[in-house]
Each structure stands twice: as C-alpha cells, then as structure tokens.
C-alpha cells in the first residue's frame, strides 16, 4: 500500500508542477511584460520539495514528467529544448547540493543555486540557438536578479512545506 501512496503523491506533485508552470507563464507576462523570458519558477517549489522528500529516481521522474508536459505539450519543441535543458541541469545541481551539504544549507540556498543555474543554462542555450551575442549578457543580468528574488521566496515556501510534511508522509 505504501508504494501506491507514493505513486499517487508523485502524480499529484507532477500535476501541481504543471499547473504552477502554466500559472507562472500567465502571471509572469503580467508582472514582467518587458522581460519575455523571465519566469518566477513556481513549479520549482514542487521540484525542490520532491528532491527533499524522495530519492534520486523519484525526484528525477517529477522533473522529467513536468518538463515533457509543461514545455513540450504547451510551449513547443524550442521551449522544451531551452527549458528542459535548464531544468535537468539545475535539478542535478539542487539534488547534488541537497545530498552533499544538506546539513549546512537550507532550501533557500539550494533554491537560489538551482534558480541561478537554470537562468545561466537557459541564456547559454538561447545564445547558441539564436546566435545572440553581447545582448545576452545584459539581459542575463536582469534575469539573474529576478531569479535571485524568486528563488529566495521559493526556498522559504519549501522550508515551510518540509516542516509541515516532515512527520506526515510515510511511504
């Protein structure tokens, strides 16, 4: 029965990540109309929570399914390449940080590292796909600033969620 509960909870988290990703796309267009690639990264709340709660295989499953559903189905192939690449690399950074130094860092630090990595990888991929030059650096500075603020807030939310779920989840 524990395995079924885990599968159901992972499915709920994937669904929530997709919904948050779509909601993020809508509110970011209103909040940052002058920054077209900027996203708050609400789905990263679910990803980071998955990293803390589950093992590598299960948390990676959440990232893969969220990336496929949210990027490929709703945004297209180019978005899947750009967002998917950044999502996977930032996932490995966050997972590695959590496993290696979780005693010395909170979800805030892990979230900020993941958000920074995601932004830098996205800029790198976009610059290479579209052959953009120096403009990427200027635009990137703005995106990193937005990412820092959003990632800090996401880390705070995840800290609260982890404290809430710590003794309530049993798989």
Give the overall silhouette.
Answer: globular
Could you state the order of secondary-structure elements as H and E? Answer: HHHHHH
Tell me the distance between the termini: 8 Å
Classification by helices and strands: mainly alpha
Whole-number average pLDDT? Answer: 89
Helix content: over 70%
Structure description:
The protein is built from six helices and no strands. The chain has helices at residues 2-31, 43-53, 56-75, 77-101, 107-130, 135-165. Helix 2 (43-53) packs parallel to helix 4, helix 2 crosses helix 6 and helix 3 packs antiparallel against helix 4 (77-101). The model has no long low-confidence stretch (mean pLDDT 89).
Brief characterization of the structure:
With 171 residues, this protein is mostly helical. The chain has 6 helices and no strands.
Layout of strands and helices, then pairs:
Blueprint: H1 2-31, H2 43-53, H3 56-75, H4 77-101, H5 107-130, H6 135-165
Helix pairs in contact: 1-2, 1-3, 2-3, 2-4, 2-6, 3-4, 4-5, 5-6
Observed structural traits:
171 residues; mainly alpha; 82% helix
């Amino acid at each position: 029965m524990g395995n079924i509960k885990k599968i159901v909870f992972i499915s709920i988290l994937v669904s929530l990540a997709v919904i948050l990703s779509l909601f993020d796309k809508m509110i970011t267009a209103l909040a940052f109309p002058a920054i077209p690639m900027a996203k708050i990264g609400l789905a990263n709340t679910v990803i980071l929570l998955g990293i803390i709660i589950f093992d590598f295989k299960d948390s990676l499953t959440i990232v893969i399914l969220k990336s496929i559903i949210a990027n490929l189905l709703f945004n297209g192939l180019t978005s899947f390449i750009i967002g998917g690449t950044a999502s996977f690399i930032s996932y490995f950074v966050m997972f590695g940080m959590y496993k290696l130094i979780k005693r010395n860092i909170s979800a805030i630090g892990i979230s900020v590292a993941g958000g920074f990595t995601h932004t830098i990888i996205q800029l790198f991929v976009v610059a290479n796909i579209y052959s953009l030059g120096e403009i990427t650096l200027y635009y990137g500075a703005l995106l990193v600033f937005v990412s820092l603020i959003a990632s800090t807030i996401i880390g705070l939310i995840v800290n609260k969620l982890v404290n809430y779920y710590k003794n309530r989840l049993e798989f």
